[in-house]
Amino acid sequence: MTIILDGKQLKEKILLKLKEKINNFEKKPSLTVILVGDNPASQIYVNNKRKTAEAIGINSNIIKYPKTISEKELLEKIHELNKDDRVNAILVQLPLPEHISKEKVINLINPQKDVDGFTPYNFGKLFSGEKPFVYPCTPKGILILLDEYNIDLDGKHVVIVGRSNIVGKPLSQMILNRNATVTICHSHTKNLAEITKTADILVSAVGENIIEEKMLKSGCIVVDVGIFKDSTGRTRGDVDFENVSKIASYISPVPGGVGPMTIASLMLNTIELFEKQNIKTPL
Ligand code: NAP
After folding, report:
1. Domains with residue ranges and CATH for the chain
2. For residue 166, is pLDDT > 80?
């Protein structure tokens, strides 16, 4: 029988615990999100983040700019937020307009407030095997989901399709730290199906419906990160869920799998940063 990796339910469980925790804090943690332009998907993501944050007692502030904002003005704002003690966590919603350097913007965020874990400091810590202030949200959410179902990674062959900085790369390192054998595939990978066939655990983060039943071995664990609208407007993942779920031992659905876990991780990260910033060193 195939078990569904239910991210939606787990997210609710995590949020309930976080709400109780925040209730006991003397002051509320705060998350500031910067949104540039009017990308409809970004607006939906940002509103969902705000609603979730507010529902559990995190003060959330969205700073909206038109897509014509200059890079200089945006960098100045980040500098200001870095210095503001009332701001515990900063998130810049991507993508940014082309005239603004994503790297410059991310590099300026104070690593202690970098709720996505994307700054070179936090990324470097992760890749050198040290602890970053926080781990990137989507990979962190995937590992929490696998842990919830007692899926042990030690010695497993994990194949990740997709090598982006937000999913594939950081996930590969986090999984390596759990003693899995990791293979990363991408658009130049030859004979993708031959590699995915060898996966004990397959994680797909591409954004196209490319993973079919014939590419996997029976009993494989399947984590679908992809999310996009098909030509009919239906929300889809990378995996042919209907057929792959017939042979997989565990599978995450889209929607309701990795997406909710990313939001839960964002809330966890906000609270972790808040707690680290508020540690009282004994006299
Ligand atoms: P991205 O930056 O566009 O990266 C996509 C990756 O897929 C690239 O590494 C690309 O290879 C690879 N790829 C493209 N076509 C391929 C093919 N035919 N065979 C093998 N690999 C191929 O995307 P992303 O930001 O990582 O996001 C990926 C998907 O996950 C999107 O649908 C996104 O919406 C979704 N996502 C969901 C969540 C969530 O919380 N659920 C979070 C983040 C992202 P190259 O590097 O060679 O170009």
Report:
1. 26-112 (3.40.50.10860), 137-259 (3.40.50.720)
2. yes
